[in-house]
Amino acid sequence: MDTMETGTISKKVEDFLQVFKKGEEFTQELLKENEKLRYRIVQLEGKTRFPDRVDSAQLKSMEERIGLLEKENRTLVDRYRQVEEENTDFASRYVEVETENNNLANLYVASHQLHSTLDFNESLKIILEIVMNLIGAEEFSIMMLDEKLNELSIMAQEGMGPEARGSIRIGHGIIGTAAKSGEAYYRKGDPADVSDVDFANPLVCIPLKIKEHVIGTIVIYKLLVQKSEFAAVDYELFSMLAGHAATALFSSKLYSESERKLTTIENFLELLKQR
Question: Which residue among 29, 179, 251, 275 is buried most deeply as judged by most CB within 10 Å?
Fold first, then answer.
């Protein structure tokens, strides 16, 4: 949804608000006029007690006028309600557009940050910040797969104690099973209802995949107090992290390893030159 569409929606909302204001003023005028006419009818009805003072033609004219005004008033009130419903719908849509734009901006920023460095530790730090600030996680970890041992080990974490630092074998428990299958795990129930954190039973487990190859997981155990539930943008972030975080970590890890190897080779060549 682009800026032009958002501007059009804002203009329609303003136009409808002007219609509402004018409609409300007109309605108030009709009600005042209605009250005056009713008072006049009472006066005229009082005259019927005195036949010599009755003006039946005037009374009938006033009654017809009141009937017409009441009909116009009902029509205006119905139109007012219709426009009010349309305004509510436009206002709701406007909020949705604003939310969608903010979510897209957050996704773009997160994606850009993930690919802004080739330093492995810096990549881990960026992912921690994304999970904490954009998703709203309080206790979570980033685990990487050791293919030789076929185990997942924590590379970075937030809010977790040393008791949660054990390795997990692929295929064992919720985390190991999610890593083996490559399918994200979301625990059923209210994500905010976590009295005691169970590191064997996380809220969310997102496998980090390059194509179909799993290289690690992001595991969330507890949300921040102000985070009561997962929103649609959270699931989009999870999907984005599954691919982009995996690529960023894999690339930065390869780069770091190649840098170490290059440094080792350069040091070795330097020693050969000195002989």
Answer: 179
Strand partners of residue 169: 151
Sheet holding 151-158, edge to edge: 168-169, 151-158, 137-146, 213-223, 204-210, 185-186
Look at 272 and 180; give whichever has higher pLDDT: 180
pLDDT 10s digits, 211-230 = 889 999 999 999 988 888 88
**pLDDT per residue as tens digits for the range 59-70:** 777 778 888 888
- pTM comes to 0.61
CA angle 40, 46, 49 (to 5 degrees): 150
100 with 1: CB under 8 angstroms? Answer: yes
Q: What angle do CA 102, 106, 107 make, to 5 degrees?
A: 120
Q: 46 or 120, which is more confident?
A: 120
**Multiple choice CATH, 118-263, 3.30.1250.10, 3.30.930.10, 3.30.450.40, 3.40.50.1010:** 3.30.450.40
User: Does 248 have pLDDT greater than 60?
Assistant: yes
Q: If you search the block for the tokens 């440094």, which residue do you land on? A: 263
Determine the distance from the C-alpha atom of residue 72 to the mean position of all C-alpha atoms in its chain, rounded to a whole number: 44
Q: Where do the domains of the chain lie? A: 1-114, 118-263
Closest CA to 178 of 130, 218, 146: 218
